[in-house]
Amino acid sequence: MLFKDFSHGITCIDTGYLRPGYAAAYLLVEAGEAVFIETGPGRAVPLLLEVLAQKGLAPEAVRAVIVTHVHLDHAGGAAALLSHLPRAQLLVHPRGLPHLLDPTKLQAGAEAVYGQAQFQRLMGSLTAADPHRTRATGDQECFVLQGRVLTLLHTPGHALHHQCVWDAASGGLFSGDAFGLSYPVLAQGGERLILPATTPVQFDLESSHQSLDRLAALSPRELYLTHFGPIPFEGRLTTQLHHLLEQFAVLAEKHRHESGAEGLTEALQQLLCSRFSGSDEAVVDLCRDWLAMDCALNAQGLLAWLRRLDRDG
Ligand SMILES: [Zn+2]
Fold first, then answer.
1. How far is CA 71 from CA 6, 85, 281, in A?
2. For labelling, which of 87, 138, 159, 227 has a CA lying 20 to 30 Å from the CA of 200?
3. What's the CA-to-centroid distance between 184 and ligand 1, angstroms?
């Protein structure tokens, strides 16, 4: 699937980052005008514009591009997309704003995590966003699209520059990486596995818990995850994420001085995929394969968090 329509004028677009079913962007349409939420990497921009055209909408119909945070699988294409949308503003958390205006640091950071060759293959090129149409949001700020109120909520934890988009009209929460990741392929008995994203370099345990509670208190009907797609909100998801965050922290503490990032990656993979241990081997292999990259990033993020705690006392 390249894109799929859901209710309330919401379309989920597969940005093609890494593999199909991994990273989404959303188009939200209300009475002939539209907002993009997330953009995927720069390579996804032609696809986003194509979906817009297929909906019969001109580039002028797009009033905003909102990114949940400036990690490149979410916002790498934001500046390039904005340049095609003459009436749109780019709305970003204040701590992410400088990085969209000057992506040099972002690129260096991502190259450090992914390596230079893989960065190019995954992300494509990065450009600077137009400063006249890019602005920082406030917590609880509302963006109104043809009478439909989208509320921006600052939700640190995964990153300090993270915000979510609350669409009260549909009960939809566009949660970026603040309410975990859940891939459609990883489900058992109809229940999808959900896992926290403790990615480097700003992951913080305490604020991750707090943001989860803040978001759960909205009682959303639907979570629109960037990784990947809509899932109905249930209380058990919140409980599961809190619990996994605690387990992740315990494993990080255990492995930091023993086996480092590699051992922690393996431990996280085992913890998450043990859920499928009663299933046949192919399912466990699928889980390990799908979560390999996330577990490696989660391990790095957890260790960076512990180092920061030590440093800051
Ligand atoms: Zn992220």
1. 26, 21, 33
2. 138
3. 19
